[in-house]
Each structure stands twice: as C-alpha cells, then as structure tokens.
Amino acid sequence: MRLPHSRSRGLRGGGPLVVALVMMAPHGETLAAQAGSAIRYRPELLACVAFHQAVLSDLETVHGEDRRTETTGWEGDLVLRAQADTGGVLSVAAWFERLRVWHDTPEGRLEPATDGMLGGRYRGILRPAGDYRPVTAPFIPEAVSAIAAMDTALDELFPPLPPAPLMPGGTVTDGRKWRFHRLSDTLVAGGTALRLRVLRSDTTSVVVDWGSGQVSQGESVEEEWGRVLWQIGKGPLSWVRRITTVVTFPATAVSVRPVRTEVRQERRLEHLGALPPERCAVP
Questions:
Q1: Contact 144, 112 (CB under 8 A)
Q2: What is the DSSP string of 221-266?
Q3: How far apart (Å, rounded) are the C-alpha atoms in residues 278 and 247?
Q4: Model pTM?
Q5: CATH 2.30.230 given to domain 27-162+171-276
Q6: Which of 18, 139, 241, 242 is deepest in the core (most CB within 10 A)?
Q7: Residue-wise pLDDT tens digits, 260-278
C-alpha cells in the first residue's frame, strides 16, 4: 500500500526528511524538550498553516471461497487557522485548496470531481491535548461521500498528545485509548523535534441487520500504530498512522458461510509550512 506524494514536499516513506543542523533551537525551547514539558496545541502554532493529508485504505472481504479486494483513497492540501477561544480551547477553521478522491475495484476506477468542496469551511473546537470537536463541515458532493467520509476529515487531523510531561524513553496512557512512548529527540530545520510512538487497540461488538428480522452479531478488532514528529515552537510536523481493522461474522441461517472483512489503512499528515495572514482570512 503506497500513498501518493504531495505537491509541495512529498510524502516519502516515514514522513518529512529530518536534517541534522549545527544551529541549535532557542535555549528555552531546548531546555523544555530536555525536561519533558507537556507539549500542547497553542494559537500561535496554528495561526495560519498548511497541511497535506493522505489516506489509503485496502479492503478485503472473504465470504467462504469468495474473495474481493478494493482500494479507496484521498489526498489534498488543507489551510487551517486557529484562534484562542474561551475556556482555554482553540477555535479552528479549515478548508481544502486541492483534493483528490478515488475508489479502485475489480470493475475499474471511480474518481469524482471535488470542485464543489474546495474552499468549504470546516469549523470546530480543539483542546490543547488534541481532542477535536467538530461544529460544521462543508457541503460534500454525493459522489465523494460515497467513497470517503470527508465530513470528518478534520476529526483525524490533529495528533493526540500525552496527558502529562514525558521524558525520552517514558511511556504514558491517556486513561482512555491512547498509549504514548517518547523516543529520543532529534534536530530538524529550525529547532528540536520530539518523536512520539502512539498506539491504540480496541475490540467492539458489531451488529448487522440482514432484514426480515435476521440479525447477526460479530466482532471488530482494531489495532493502530503511529508516529508523531513534533517541532518545538512549530507544532506537528508529521503523523504517520497504520491501522488494521478485522471484522468477523459467524455463519448464520442468512449467511451460511462466515464473513471476514479486513481493512488496512495508512494515513499521513505533513506540515507544509506557515502562510501569510491574508491567506487565512475567514469570512
């Protein structure tokens, strides 16, 4: 499974190229990284920035001896503006300036037009630790929504952050679903970058209604591995995620053979850089 490259800096392998520099980060920021200060989203980090997002999903369904494989994907460039709001949260507005969506099946490829989405505003509330609550989403053309859940694109934009200060080599959970492990820090252009491994595992029951009163209960097991690169004074540089979801249903009177569906998904976020304030004028 290979994601497309972005127009600007590209999505190559494990994210943006990390370049060691002789120039060190500002003294205070370097000390903060070494001391394991909790990293948080702040208005100045997201005042007017561009990100590249890319998602690729491989879906395989096995029903007895029958096997079907499909691939869906989308990638685009997003402009985002965040401002301080009451209660210590950030008010976020964002919009796509470029977007591609596609669906590959054994019957061929679908790639609907996305022009109707470009410039449409996503709005929501972002908490300092990365919890995002959507408020509004732009109009999503029906042909696009049939392939990708673009109404929730911003829900998956912000990497979650550790709930407390974390020293290199340390591990902590947020008490809900995320487990964080801080790797050794590195130097990137302009300062210090923290590297986080972010893990998640979840098992849930799934119910499907076949109609005519026939209901089957199955199980969904989801495993996620992720890596976040966070630059002191700049925010998230990249977030690479690999998610595997396996859903199984036993044989029933309706489906005499067991059904197994596996979705392998790769998601990438890349910071493309700060933009001039006039690019982020929001009506």
A1: yes
A2: EEEEEEEEEEETTTEEEEEEEEEEEEEEE---SSSSS-EEEEEEEE
A3: 47
A4: 0.81
A5: yes
A6: 241
A7: 889 999 999 999 999 999 9
